[in-house]
Design brief:
Blueprint: E1 2-5, E2 11-15, E3 18-21, E4 24-27, H1 32-39, E5 47-53, E6 58-64, E7 72-78, E8 80-87, E9 98-104, E10 110-113, E11 117-123, E12 128-134, E13 143-145, H2 166-169, H3 174-179, H4 186-189, E14 201-203, E15 209-211
Antiparallel strand pairs: 1-2, 2-10, 3-4, 5-12, 6-11, 6-13, 7-10, 7-12, 8-9, 8-11, 14-15
């Protein structure tokens, strides 16, 4: 697989190598070691989610309190979505910036986003199905959202009629969320979002040093 850092620190695009013949295909859509080597630490797998959406559904922009935050590893196993990462970390050089990656059942890419980053997507097909790993379990008291249609963020959603949940439609703008103290701080998030492994390895979730092979 190929791992490419996005323009937002702590976000990566992963493109797997697919092996196919007339019987079908095989691919590795997640590799613990390759991801850890790229981002500088392993992804703790605490929960796995699956989301099915109709065309034009927009979900997000969701994030969790840091600490502990919630890192995610997302892929689309059916249909297609525009997956979006938003930098919500106050003090970050790219605060308020967004970047989108098309995830679909053809190229079968994945997106990794570290703690403190916001996540959302727009379903480009009916029955668009996302599956994703999370580094922490769901904690409703620590979960928040920023309005996905906030003009300050300016996400170019590929739909003229976005369908939002009641929760997302009522979410605050980026400015209001910042004023309310809901957004994560960049300096607190940085230890949780290393962007590269050292030459000698990385530290695992228990604080143990793992040498690069």
């Amino acid at each position: 697989m190929k791992l490419r850092p996005l323009s937002i620190e702590g976000a990566w695009e992963i493109t797997p190598q697919q092996h196919g013949d007339p019987r079908g295909l095989f691919l590795e859509w997640y590799r613990f070691d390759r991801l850890a080597e790229a981002v500088g630490r392993p992804l703790r797998l605490a929960q796995g989610n699956l989301s099915v959406s109709a065309r034009n559904v927009v979900r997000g922009i969701h994030f969790a309190d840091v600490p502990p935050g919630q890192a995610k590893y997302v892929t689309c196993v059916r249909g297609a979505v525009l997956d979006v990462v938003v930098d919500l970390r106050v003090g970050s050089p790219t605060f308020g910036r967004w970047e989108g990656v098309r995830l679909d059942d053809v190229d079968r890419r994945a997106v990794y986003l570290a703690e403190g980053l916001g996540h959302g997507f727009c379903a480009l097909t009916d029955d668009a199905t996302l599956t994703y790993f999370c580094s922490t379990t769901y904690n409703p008291s620590a979960e928040h959202a920023v309005h996905p249609l906030d003009e300050q963020i300016g996400i170019d959603w590929p739909t003229t009629g976005p369908q939002l949940s009641a929760r997302d439609a009522a979410a605050p703008t980026l400015a209001h969320a910042r004023a309310a103290g809901l957004l994560p701080q960049y300096d607190i998030c940085r230890p949780h979002s290393a962007t590269g492994a050292t030459a000698v390895g990385y530290t695992d979730s228990c604080g143990r040093h793992v040498p690069r092979q």
